Amino acid sequence: MDRVRLGIIGLGIMGNLYVKIFSAHPLAEVVAVCALEPSRVDEIRSLYGIRDGYVDYRKMLERADLDAIVVATPDRHHFEPARDALESGRHVLVEKPFTTSVKEADELIRISRRVGKMIQVSFNHRWLSSYHQAKETIQSGQIGVPLAGAARKNDTIYVATEYLSWAGETTSAWFLSSHDIDLMRWWLDSEPVEARAWGRKEVLAARGIPTYDVIQAQVKFASGAFATFESAWVYPNTFPSIVDSFMEVIGTAGHLHMDRKCESIEISTNERFSYPKGFLTAEIFGRVRGAFPSCLEDFLYALREGTTPRVTGIDGRQVTAALEAIHRSLETGNTEKVAALPE
Ligand SMILES: NC(=O)c1ccc[n+]([C@@H]2O[C@H](COP(=O)([O-])OP(=O)(O)OC[C@H]3O[C@@H](n4cnc5c(N)ncnc54)[C@H](O)[C@@H]3O)[C@@H](O)[C@H]2O)c1
After folding, report:
1. Which fold does the domain 4-124+289-312 belong to in CATH?
2. With a 6 A CB cut-off, is 9 part of the ligand 1 pocket?
């Protein structure tokens, strides 16, 4: 495979970035793009010089010249495009969360095995250098045996009210904690087995967005370690960063703290004080750099070299299973079992 020929489904905030990054990459060629809004399809095509555009992804999948499909649709709409892309014999790169049900995740994994095509889930935080260092530190035993962890990923209310048009169709846990559950499971090298969660619906519900303001979940892992996952998206917009992110792991012989509230730069102007983000994506000398483009590049390498992707469908499925148990617990008020991987 000389260059990976890609079709991209979903051209919103993330889809635009996929097109931008892949169309500038020497190992990739964005052949076609697809979104529900024809004006957006035209805009992206002319912005990046993409040959063909579609409003129905099924039509795009009829083309013969596609090797892989990116699914960057809203949280609850990953399954159908991913299933149809796999069934059409294409590799798939899916945004997080992989799916919003275990049943869907298991079906995608079954199809990918049957058709012999790979799935990578875009848990791009695994490419952040501090999180990668955390993995190596834990793996080499430097903090002893991990006992417990904690994660906080809290957005300003801008995200739930303006940035996303579909916040009411998802939750802060699906949108935010999915990253942290993936990281914790990776670091602890253990599977989630049960979850208990609490949530509040006050601020956003009053604004007509029927979703939780904040969710806290405790997840137990097979190793005996446990972790708290907090996600909220009602911080006032005066907060200096779009996301307040903190993670910790406590081991028998040490600990790790990773604070991404401020990514090393603070700026004050007469208008505002801010901690701009730059570690995931930053435009540097005319190209998008950072953890997110590295995640995309590794998908290309996995395809070219025929290796297992760095974050597989199984990884995505296990995060979905933990989140499904968390959401069941929010409804029942009980501790809920995480659905184990099928034999
Ligand atoms: N990895 C990260 O850091 C990160 C950050 C933000 C969002 N995301 C994830 O990326 C995904 C997309 O989020 P977004 O913010 O770009 O959403 P968005 O609302 O900006 O864009 C969604 C796009 O999907 C298209 N779409 C929806 N259904 C479709 C269908 N059936 N066929 C074709 N196109 C369809 C819409 O037309 C739109 O172009 C979500 O799952 C979100 O959680 C990930």
Report:
1. Rossmann fold (3.40.50)
2. yes
